[in-house]
MerR family transcriptional regulator (Kitasatospora saccharophila), 282 residues
Amino acid sequence: MRIGELSERTNTSRRLLRYYEEQMLIVSARMPNGYREYDERFVDRVMQIRGLLDAGLPIRIIKQILPCLDKPRTIHFPDATPEMLDTLRRERDRMTERINCLIRNRDSVSDYLDEVSKGWRPDPDQERDRHDELIDAHSAN
Amino acid sequence: MRIGELSERTNTSRRLLRYYEEQMLIVSARMPNGYREYDERFVDRVMQIRGLLDAGLPIRIIKQILPCLDKPRTIHFPDATPEMLDTLRRERDRMTERINCLIRNRDSVSDYLDEVSKGWRPDPDQERDRHDELIDAHSAN
DNA sequence: TTGAACCCTCACATATATGTGAGGGTCAAC
DNA sequence: GTTGACCCTCACATATATGTGAGGGTTCAA
């Protein structure tokens, strides 16, 4: 497929697809007329890139972890220098931290929405303790 | 505490703490000499903000969800307009998508690391098999 | 009373991801 | 053979989060 179709199917501007290519996250074949040509695999690949970008990973890091996400991944073993593996372990751990942070906060938002939809109403009898609770309000972020 | 201590305890530059204040993510009291004064709660609050920023949420959104994360949150219920609740639901869903994307990719990285460490340990104590795999590797390229 | 170590505001600079548009090919349909 | 919908490169613009530094006040201890 050409860039326009990939753009529509991944909801990503042509500009960005060319940018990702420039940043070497993807590679494109070229048709005789110079047009870029992509095969089906790129739909998922681009959506994966977008997901990771949206989750806060910079292109520099995405470029490093993408090769590990290919299956079969054996081809990429030889590229794995010890420094690279260290980077990957660090990134894996950062991703886990991000996940936990997101889960905690998503659950808070979720709880909030649940309580609102249950029809919470201000109860003057419970306002007494508010000050005390404020003290240990934010935990573990 | 003053901004320097908060900065050290949250590993966040003074510049950014002032920026978060300008963006109304946090508020500071002022001492008579004009210095900012923070109480303990801000340590967690700032770390929460940093976690969310790192997870890809823009300040605009963080500003909207932060009030829901306060406990007790009752104070903020009356502010919840229907549009606001819609935004929150959308953000909750986006956070869930981010979480799933991160988990998928983290697990892939993790699997990769596991396989590398099973087959090819850069650790000098366990280098037995490396030679064969290196041969394979080079012919695959 | 001087100096170090804080703090203030303000402004300009940088990196990253993204938008926009100019100037110009390619190609299929009318 | 003209038109419209694609594609190309290149360059400039924008938004967001962050760094850096100038110019200047405050506090405290030697």
User: Anything to note?
Assistant: Residues 13, 15-16, 19, 33-35, 53, 58-60 of chain B lie near DNA strand D (CB under 10 Å from a C1'). The first helix of chain B runs from residue 3 to 10.
